[in-house]
Amino acid sequence: MTTQPASYASERLPDRYIRDVTRRLPEDQRADISAELGASIADRVESMRRERPGTSLAQAEYAALVELGDPVRLAAAYSGRVAQLIGPEVYPVYVRVLRAMLWVAVPPAVTLTTLADISRGESTGALVGGAVWMALTVVVQIVFWITVVFALVERGGESRDLQGSVAAWTPDHLPDSLGESRGSLMDMAANLTWFGFLGAAIVWQQLSSPVTAGGERMPLLDPHLWSTWLPVVLVTVIVSMAFEVVRCRAGGWSRTLAAVNVVVGALFTAPLVYLAVAERLFNPAMLAAVDDDGAFSGGSSWILAFLLLLVWVWNSVEGWRKARSEQSRIPSVGAPVTNH
Fold this sequence. Notes:
Helix content: 55-70%
Order of helices and strands: EHHHHHHHEEHHHHE
Number of domains: 2
Mean pLDDT: 75
Shape: elongated
Strand content: under 5%
Structural class: mainly alpha
Distance between the termini: 11 Å
């Protein structure tokens, strides 16, 4: 009795490998190359089992795929590099993420800008102009950053040979299913876009705040924080983006990644919660200009802190839940495989 590789799941490895190769090819080439590649793998598996009696089907398939190598590089050999900025494989996900981020970001940004203009007594024309300008600014930023993220992801697989000195490709790197691979990619792209937008917003509010008083723009956040806390927050944003890339490249969640997710989230949340509770987060001059009755103080700061903590707890719990879910689908090493 022999043992199977750790990643050998209910779906046969050759099927997952062929799908991972052909999904990177033009639609009109997939059927022919799929049949050709399937026949090639079957021949090699049969040859290996003749040469090495006692080799299980799972072991022979695993070894055959190791010989074929990284499916990204094999697909590149069939079709060459992607000629377009966003290739057909990730384009549907790109469109979904783009639509979702625009829907989530544009209306609140326009609403906040309009409310700020109303509080300053701007004319109707100024209100419309400000809303249009804010909508265009947010749309351009989101489209730019999402496109950059997806363009890099599209070409990231092409550069896997740069990682050869770190870890050679094995069938353990194959995605369990195409749906899960796209889901992980979509999650990473959405999170990278969100963190990139957040970092840009922190800088933007200092340079081009929508709030003005006496003809001068007033930053939303306390300018004194640039000497201490805001650089720390921006660093945690970058760390969070790096974590998203690592998690996606790892192929999913694990207990280690879930624990790191808790720590990274805490590093990002803790400074903001402290500043909110201490009422040091927002620019006092800005609050005085738009909040004459002092409504945004005391209880409002605690509510903001509570919401930040709630998001961190929810994100942490989700990480652990996904890690447990993915771990439960991984067969134990040493599980028997019946010889065929």
